[in-house]
């Protein structure tokens, strides 16, 4: 009988902390702990929220009848670390230091320290890990250049979901992920399109704040000259300009909503403005996929569409119609980060992948022994 490992996954967000328990691939618990603005305003920094969030997790597990003594592993969402290669990383002091002192602070930076705090209280030997944070960097050298040495391209994308669905597809077709060439398009509040060449993402648009297709909350690639002129026009502050790119760009700017489900419903009801936006979005996604096909030299085994927007059959159809000449199109709708974290932990426990250790210079090496 196969041993069913029990894994706790943790995903801290700006206004919530998600937790889940998996027994093998079976989900036993999935809960979102909401945090009010008043609760969070009591803390000066992100890291000041550590004990507060950890205690809420402990209470939620207790109420659900989950004993940490029964856990085999804790896997948390990774934060804004130094660039690293893809993989599952054991939490260590170097990682905790880099997360606490990172220039960019986000709630995801709390994932590793919360996980570590939980395992330190466990009666058994238990380890904490993170898997495929957004800073996964496997770019080819030529993909790092932009057009000016002052502005090198950065790898910031939906690594966790992209890598997870790529491995699931590989399992589905019975081939190692490391032997496939795939294009994965994550379609969510942000959109990232990655060229996966034999297990490495050799090119991907910087999905956080600068490149790629328009999305529900982000403008994507914009005319640089016009942006510079607007920035120096005196009409806008730096904060307002940044908001145009992330938060108030994309669908928010065109349709005054970031609710993609609502916008898709508007399209189905015949709203011409909404239809035009989604025609633009799907066109730009297809164009980005075409660019990644070129990055792979035209050798593409499959194109995978994933993320929340991939739940829309119409949107998937519009993209697929433009790109199906490149390779077959597979759809993995939704974005299940909790499951992706658990799968990484399960693959490690089953020795299907190897664990890595983070060091302060952003490089990694295989765990020995």
UniProtKB/TrEMBL annotation:
Q: Matching CDD domains, A to Z? A: ASKHA_NBD_BK
Per its UniProt record, what Pfam families does this chain match?
Answer: Acetate_kinase
Task: Cite the EC number.
Answer: 2.7.2.7
Is DNA damage set as a keyword in this record?
no
Kindly list the GO molecular function terms attached to this UniProt entry: acetate kinase activity; ATP binding; butyrate kinase activity
Q: What reactions does this protein catalyze?
A: butanoate + ATP = butanoyl phosphate + ADP
Gene3D superfamilies (UniProt xref): 3.30.420.40
PROSITE patterns hit by this protein: ACETATE_KINASE_1, ACETATE_KINASE_2
Would you tell me the Gene Ontology cellular component terms?
cytoplasm
User: Which protein family is it in?
Assistant: Belongs to the acetokinase family.
UniProt name for this protein: Probable butyrate kinase
- Tell me the lineage of the source organism: Bacteria, Pseudomonadati, Bacteroidota, Cytophagia, Cytophagales
């Amino acid at each position: 009988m196969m041993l069913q490992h029990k894994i706790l996954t943790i995903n801290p967000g700006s206004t919530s902390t998600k937790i889940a328990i998996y027994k093998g691939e079976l989900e036993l618990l999935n809960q979102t702990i909401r945090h009010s603005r008043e609760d969070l305003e009591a803390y000066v920094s992100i890291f000041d929220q550590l004990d507060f969030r950890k205690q809420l997790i402990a209470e939620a597990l207790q109420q659900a009848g989950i004993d940490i003594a029964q856990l085999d592993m804790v896997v948390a969402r990774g934060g804004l670390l130094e660039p690293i290669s893809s993989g599952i990383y054991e939490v260590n002091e170097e990682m905790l230091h880099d997360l606490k002192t990172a220039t960019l602070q986000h709630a995801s930076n709390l994932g590793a320290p919360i996980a570590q705090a939980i395992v330190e209280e466990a009666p058994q030997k238990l380890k904490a890990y993170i898997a495929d944070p957004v800073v996964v960097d496997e770019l080819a050298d030529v993909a790092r250049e932009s057009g000016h040495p002052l502005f090198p391209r950065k790898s910031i994308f939906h690594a966790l979901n992209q890598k997870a669905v790529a491995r699931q597809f590989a399992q589905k077709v019975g081939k190692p992920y490391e032997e496939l060439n795939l294009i994965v398009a994550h379609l969510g509040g942000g959109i990232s399109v990655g060229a996966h060449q034999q297990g490495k993402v050799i090119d991907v648009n910087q999905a956080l704040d600068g490149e790629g297709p328009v999305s529900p909350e982000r403008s994507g690639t914009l005319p640089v000259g016009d942006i510079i002129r607007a920035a120096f026009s005196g009409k806008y502050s730096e904060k307002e300009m940044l908001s145009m790119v992330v938060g108030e760009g994309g669908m928010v700017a065109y349709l005054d909503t970031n609710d993609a489900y609502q916008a898709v419903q508007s399209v189905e009801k015949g709203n011409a403005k909404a239809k035009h936006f989604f025609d633009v979005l799907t066109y730009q996604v297809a164009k980005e996929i075409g660019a990644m096909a070129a990055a792979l030299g035209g050798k593409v085994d499959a194109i995978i569409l994933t993320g929340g927007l991939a739940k829309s059959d119409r949107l998937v159809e519009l993209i697929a119609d433009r790109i199906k000449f490149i390779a077959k199109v597979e759809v993995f709708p939704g974005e299940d980060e909790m499951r992706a974290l658990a799968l990484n932990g399960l693959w490690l426990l089953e020795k299907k992948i190897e664990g890595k250790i983070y060091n302060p210079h952003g490089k990694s090496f295989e765990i020995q022994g």
